[in-house]
# Entry
Amino acid sequence: MYQPEESAPGAATARERRAAGQPAARVLGHVVQCVAARAGIAVSIGGSETAVAESWTVGKLISINLGKTRTVGLIYGIERPQRRWDEDGSNPIMVLAELIGEVRDLNGTPVFDRGITVYPHIGAIAHRIRASDLEAVYDLGGRPAVTVGHLSQDGAIAARLAIDETLDRHFAIVGTTGVGKSTAVSLLLRKAIEARPDLRILILDPHNEFAAALPDYCVRLDGASLDLPFWMFRLEELVEVLFRGREPVAEEVELLRDLVTRAKHLYRGPGDSMLKRGDGGGITADTPVPYRMADLIGQIDERMGQLDAKTDRPHYRQLRTRIEGALADPRYRFMFASRLVEDSIHETIGRIFRVPGEGRPVTCFEMAGLPSEVVNSVCSVLARIAFDLTLWSEGRLKLLLLCEEAHRYMPADSRLGFAPTRHALARIAKEGRKYGCSLGVVTQRPGDLDPAVLSQCSTVFAMRLANEQDQSIIRSAIADSSASILTFLSSMGQREAIAFGDGVATTMRMTFERLPDWLLPGVKDAPGKGRQAHDGHSTDDIDLESIVARMRETGRRARTRTSAFASTAESAPHSVYESPFQPAARPRGRLG
# Structure
């Protein structure tokens, strides 16, 4: 659009000149006000110059020529001082811009720097930013990058993301319902897998939607297919299961702590010298070593028959009832259904975290329909193991834990969330990047999310947010001088986001790529059919009888599988526990 004169590196940039083909009515603006990082630009537009007026619209970047540098500004407001429009004459316009950085020509190449070293003077020429300067503003300086969409201001310029900084330093995607968060997540995951084939991804999926969006990359896990033995749970996680989310009884918890420790020793052998001496031998109620529930119940029965346990007898009886209730509950079949208790921690962890990946590096843990106490305990175990795996793999295993609806596990109010889950996820947020464990946070209510976790996300994609509290949370998270761009949060379109942080060169308003319909989250149709396949279905096609039969069959199968649990005391194989969390005991070649 503009024809600048050739200039030597570091030389002053010549005043803009019109090409021969440009319209004569083309006008430039002039700076008439500058306060700190904000400038006012006077522009005069004729009544019929619609094309010229479109160059000065809210949300666009402009350039102010200052000789050796060109200051880049973001338009956040425009106004006609007299509040009227003259169709026949000239209309003076005031353009309000926030200054976000400077562009310099180095060896003939535009280079963008954040911050302002030279502020515009009165009368400085302002104009629509050149395409080359616009590309320089969002250039990542050679860092490994992926293209995730295009700029909202110029669809010809790609929106590129520094993938290593985005993943390694955590990221967050926020936006109200229906703006395309899940689609954006699916797109980012696909790009991440292509750029980082060594990455393993675990998705906590409360709506069972991401497996359909990543059919060629993921393995599904749900309440029926998950195999997470109860002995891998820490005491506080097991207490959550036994008390079903209610306030635990302190006396019962203390009894359970001792019972679990002794049951772990009994699994090693009835003649365990450590058990006879009463020495823990390094094994506690939190150590992930196998034990049998039959031994646990047997110890309760034995202690209730002792005379010195008279005062604790009601607590033992109630604890036994809780354990038997959990064993018979079909919702906990993933913990108790196995007839044999064996040290299968390597196989369990390898299957959940895809080690080896076998071409499918993503695990979708589908939680729809599971009760909250089950979700709380399982998410706590998975987050804790994820951190320990990356810690003791010494950087060889790279893992991303993606939390959809993250405010469920990490609420701002500590009384609303399960404390072990909060602690495990907060540990990843604060320390995970040092060891290769990354966190992805997706939420529609950032105001309900623990601010300590959100503050650890170095890259944020803010999609449309209508709630004022949520908007204020995002405004407080942005660190550079582009804060005024967040005024558009309530009016952005579908798939549009404001990205800021370490993963982008500078704050940018962008639009995500469009995925094929059959790869959208939640679509379970055959490839090529998309969502429209559901439109032809009527309520007459629903077989309610078969649906109810499946609901009942789930409970019958679980009860059948748990009824044989008592036989584990006689038939369970014994094994010596070798911790995969200690570097010396880690099997060579299993990670990587």
In short: Residues 372-392 form the longest helix (21 residues). Confidence is low (pLDDT under 50) at residues 1-26, 273-280, 525-538, 554-592. The longest strand covers residues 90-106. The chain is about 30% helix and 20% strand.
